[in-house]
Amino acid sequence: xxxxxxxxxxxxxxxxxxxxxxxxxxxxxxxxxxxxxxxxxxxxxxxxxxxxxxxxxxxxxxxxxxxxxxxxxxxxxxxxxxxxxxxxxxxxxxxxxxxxxxxxxxxxxxxxxxxxxxxxxxxxxxxxxxxxxxxxxxxxxxxxxxxxxxxxxxxxxxxxxxxxxxxxxxxxxxxxxx
Length: 178
Prior knowledge:
The protein is an alpha/beta fold. 39% of the residues lie in helices and 14% in strands.
């Protein structure tokens, strides 16, 4: 990671038990691709996927709250074991509160990664609000931390490694790959 992580971000990351992600602009590059037959296409970064698996291995749950609905996203979430998955919700704060009703978790134990204005309310109220390098300038100003990587290009992996490192779990998990 090339950007300096502020001590307050590291302290907040130590408490994270749930990482929630937006999709377009976070797990993807934010572009919408349509085929000639009208089908929607999305590209997901394989390194982000491994980052999600690393978090899960480290005991951090990963979920998604997104405003769009996509069968492709459902497939990717199933592949990675992402739960909760909430699609088609423009009011992400309400969706977050619904998650809190079903989990024994405090708001300070949640990190959220969002790239644009619909993500701001959740970014502000969780324990750690993060935006990728391609996040809007408004999100960048209000985020606790901005990744060096853009959405769909390793931003989630960067977040995963930062959280695991802050929790003292990263090196142990990485040792399994050496």
